Amino acid sequence: MLRELNVHILPAEGSGPAQTVLLAHGYGCDQSLWREVAQALPQARRVLFDWPGAGGSDPDAYDAGRHASLDGYADDLLALMAALDLHDAVVVGHSVAGTIAAIAAAREPGRFGQLVMVAPSPCFINDPPGYEGGFDRPQLEALIDALADGQAAWSRAVAPVVMGNPDRPELSDQLADSFCAMDPAIALRWARATFLTDIRALVPRVNVPCLVLQCQSDALAPMAVGDWLAAHLPVSRQVSLQATGHCPHVSAPAEVAHVLSHWMGWRG
């Protein structure tokens, strides 16, 4: 499993027992986007990896049938945690990785000391009057259709919206390059699973301490989503970052690392 998911482990600096922090990247990305956050957490044992079909993962680790749903990715996360013999890890998931980790935590809560959900969304689809996900289903279908029509054009158009921070175009370029690096068929299949999955019914069964980190001006996950999660997770805290956009670990890694350092020992 370590080879299949291109796992890299950064040992903790200093003496004494160290907490393990597993950093999981979001849709269309790879572990490199966590680089600056990982470097800013030297007190922890940091585990970075690539989801099947992304980054430097083994091509044979991806299965079109199993990975058509987020459950398949949750299988991979639990297998990785078992391979590393993790039982009290802090799992930090960006965007859809937070959703995947929530599915895994509902299955095997004993492996999680804490789940940190960065810019999360249990459901991107609006469900009035009680839930504002940010999008109507036709909007998401159109987004997915546009990806099917042309990955490169889609990536260049979507990345600036996702990243935000228009005064720092190099960040959007980095994200667009990451989107373009994916196999088009995998990118499309993962997009469907990401944007059309609804785990709201599962959220009350995530019985681990959860920290919800939200950003200002996030085009994909409005503040109402974080409010909903905080109200429905059994044990949770909600932190509103100063960072803007959907990728604070890229645009504001120092702030994200500072918040993680402050909350890593929290157990509810």
UniProtKB/TrEMBL annotation:
It comes from the Bacteria. Transmembrane segments: none annotated. It holds the Pfam family Abhydrolase_6. Residues 21-258 form the AB hydrolase-1 domain. PANTHER family: ESTERASE-RELATED. Belongs to the AB hydrolase superfamily. This is Sigma-B regulation protein RsbQ. It comes from Sphaerotilus mobilis. The lineage of its organism: Bacteria, Pseudomonadati, Pseudomonadota, Betaproteobacteria, Burkholderiales.
